[in-house]
Design a protein that fits this description.
Layout lengths: L1 H8 L5 E3 L20 E2 L3 H6 L1 E3 L5 H6 L2 H10 L4 E4 L3 E4 L4 H14 L3 E3 L4 E7 L2 E7 L4 E3 L3 E3 L14 H8 L4 E7 L3 E3 L11 E11 L6 E12 L3 E3 L1 H7 L9 E6 L6 H14 L5 H6 L4 H10 L13 H12 L1 E3 L1 E4 L7 E6 L4 E2 L4 E2 L5 E3 L7 E2 L4 H19 L1
Parallel strand pairs: 1-6, 10-22
Antiparallel strand pairs: 2-5, 3-23, 4-5, 7-8, 8-9, 11-19, 12-15, 12-18, 13-14, 13-16, 14-15, 16-17, 20-21
Length: about 400
């Protein structure tokens, strides 16, 4: 939609092909249906939040940055608001307002929107893309073609990997698509006992073991959630995009009390033990964690919740301290594309001109959005990548 809009604004006659039955199907589900339009962070932070190929995005952000997207949406009649983490949403909390505004602008610009229409192949002659072959065999001619098909995450929204097939037809290399911003399944089964429990202000650390010295992959503080298969939530989703494909050497650790160093936490335990010497151990733990988690922590530490506090040894107290500061988990795998917010991998950006989004291999062929090997952490950054690359591809294609 953004590619078509900016191309049409440059005066081009544009046909938008979508094999879905309606426009913007994936935008409907972003931000849990609220549409996290972009992030209001400054560009330095923005670039740090892009995990793969951030430098590729410089020209696209120059064409349309986050401030530009916010101004565009406001000009199309969609008031915005900025929430925690500088995430930007429509004031109405309705993704449909964003899609409706873009659809109305496409109609005003005279874009020919063809729904329920698939692209089978590119029409390439003498190193130039001349159009696309539609499902059913009819060719649609054009001076330029923009492939903006998304990746393979949430395939029910139409992201079925068609763009990779078209890119490979044109000779482009495609980095293996993997789930990104996805929940993590753990080898341990005990998280299922805490399904639905959300933790705030905890620290999640990931280590790559197996070498001479463990390598820290990730260490951030925030929110996470226990599920029937393992863990999810903002901290976990961001971590998932940084993990290697092979998780066999990865270990996770949760610090449930990151605001307290071990010495301070141990002093608190001692105070609580003295104050509740005649009570059961679970009484102390309930002051440190939600009850269901407190029981699970004692179980992992090999201690009974009914144990008298005055019977706890120094070694047992050390075990409690250790589990509070380093609750271990072992990742088994990421959840699949049906639950991944974005796709990691895609069309290798080495074959794309970052100043125009045009293919270096085939003239008149452009790529934009998640089909490219560019992805970022959660918080509106990935939609901005789509808006920016779409806008640049649209302008470039119209001017070619």
């Amino acid at each position: 939609m953004m590619a078509a809009l900016f191309s049409a604004r440059e005066g081009a006659a544009v046909t938008l092909i979508d094999h879905n039955e309606k426009l913007g199907k994936k935008v409907y589900i972003t931000g849990k249906g609220r549409c996290n339009v972009t992030n209001a962070a400054d560009m330095d932070r923005f670039m740090r939040c892009i995990h793969r190929n951030p430098r590729f995005m410089y020209a696209a952000f120059s064409a349309l940055d986050n401030r530009g997207v916010m101004a565009l949406m406001e000009s199309l009649g969609v008031p915005l608001k900025v929430e925690r983490g500088e995430r930007v949403f429509p004031a109405s909390d309705k993704a449909s307002d964003i899609i409706g505004a873009l659809a109305r602008e496409l109609a005003r610009l005279g874009v020919d929107v063809r729904l329920n229409t698939g692209a089978e192949a590119l029409v390439i002659e003498d190193g130039t893309c001349r159009g696309v072959l539609l499902t059913g065999g009819r060719a649609l001619e054009g001076d330029a073609v923009i492939v903006a098909t998304g990746g393979v995450s949430y395939p029910s929204t139409g992201s079925t990997g068609d763009g990779y097939r078209l890119a490979e037809q044109a000779g482009h290399a495609v980095k293996k698509p993997l789930p990104a911003l996805a929940p993590i399944e753990t080898r341990e089964s005990w998280p299922a006992n805490l399904m639905g429990l959300s933790l705030k202000n905890v620290a999640l650390t990931a280590w790559l073991t197996g070498g001479k010295k463990p390598k820290k992959l990730y260490d951030e503080q925030g929110e996470m959630l226990f599920t029937h298969f393992g863990i999810s939530g903002p901290l976990v989703l961001t971590l998932s995009s940084l993990l290697p494909e092979d998780l066999s050497a990865v270990k996770l650790s949760i610090d449930l009390k990151p605001a307290l160093d071990e010495q301070t936490l141990d002093a608190r335990l001692l105070r609580d033990f003295r104050a509740m010497a005649r009570k059961q151990l679970i009484s102390v733990m309930d002051g440190l964690a939600p009850h269901s988690l407190a029981e699970q922590l004692l179980k992992l530490a090999g201690l009974s919740p009914a144990m008298p506090v005055n019977a706890v040894t120094a070694g047992q107290r050390r075990a409690i301290l250790d589990i509070l500061k380093r609750l271990p988990l072992t990742p088994r795998k990421l959840r699949d594309f049906n639950e991944a917010i974005v796709t990691r991998g895609g069309v290798d950006v080495k074959g794309i001109n970052p100043s125009t989004m045009e293919s270096k291999l085939v003239r008149g062929l452009y790529f934009a959005g998640e089909v490219l090997d560019v992805d970022a952490q959660t918080g509106g950054f990935n939609l901005q990548i789509a808006w920016s690359t779409g806008a640049l591809a649209g302008m470039s294609a119209a001017q070619a």
